[in-house]
Fold this protein.
Amino acid sequence: MPAGTLAPFVAASLDAAHLDEPLSPTGRTLGWGVVSTADIAEKVVPDIAALPDARLVAVSSRDQHRAEDFARRHGVERAYGNSAGATGLERLAADPEVEVAYVATPHGYHHRDVSALLRAGKHVVCEKALAMTAAEVRDLQDLARGHGVFLMEAVWTRMTPGFRTAMGWVRAGRLGRVHSVEASIGMHRPVDPAHRLFRNADGGGVLLDMMVYPLTWTGAALGTPRSWSARAELGDTAVDLDTALTLDFGHGRGHVSGTLAATVPHQVVISGTEGWLRVDGRINCPTTLVRQSADGARERAAPVVEHVEVTGGGYVYEMREATRCIQQGLPESPVMPWADSLELVELFDRVRERIGLSYPNDRR
């Protein structure tokens, strides 16, 4: 990507007028299925339900009672748990009224679950990471292509109003030419071998769970790095507890980090020739943006603070984008294209090799 330009997905996001009014319908009503009753599904499903052109048809879980409880609380029409003849996922995939499925299972199950849905002819929106390795992502994309269905990794940040506002400032030249992006995310969390974040087989750790967010910001403003270095701390459960990447873009630099081992500020700082921009708090769905111009810095003026309103839990924007794409017959989203999902997981594969992290049945 030439110096001074933004990634193509940024233009697609900024020019997506439907994201300005995410609760306005963009076409016919779609029947949704929800795979898993995990915590993230509890947060995301109310935003799907808020879409006027969405209908919550079914939810699946390994446990029938858990599926029924989730369905009752979220207004889902049918609940599918494991039965003697089929799993909850298989029962959902066989439901003819489910057109698109939102997959909220842990990373380690994504390839299995998404494959089953694609083979059943369902469109799929899958939580990040789309799969654990580049080989698995390529396989899913080949399946989606072969079955003529939509597939999108749910990197919601790209569609949120805070991200779009920040990138609008960058595109308008308010920062001048961007030279650096620094971003951090994480928390101190006591090791719990039973939790997905600390289970190697589930793709636990920082890399797959957190690093997509800081890398979204470097990728947007600087593109693809030409070289990088990594450091990481691996825990007793064979997941990365603390990972940092230093990125060289030729025309700029980046430093991104994620951690489960320390209390850190969630923050992004984008610095350019004419000013800087800071995202405070939720870098995955920003609500507070701080901007300082070069003139303001010289004059010691106070930075400009802008608060950004977010609809619902902030997931409604990615679900509006997926809905619009499916309604229009698109196989992938221009805001979250397949090539970007593959490029990111290819980087993760190389990082894992560098830091000595592997998964069971590793496919690269």
User: Anything to note?
Assistant: Residues 161-309+344-355 form a domain with the Dihydrodipicolinate Reductase; domain 2 fold (CATH 3.30.360.10). The first strand starts at residue 30 and ends at 35.
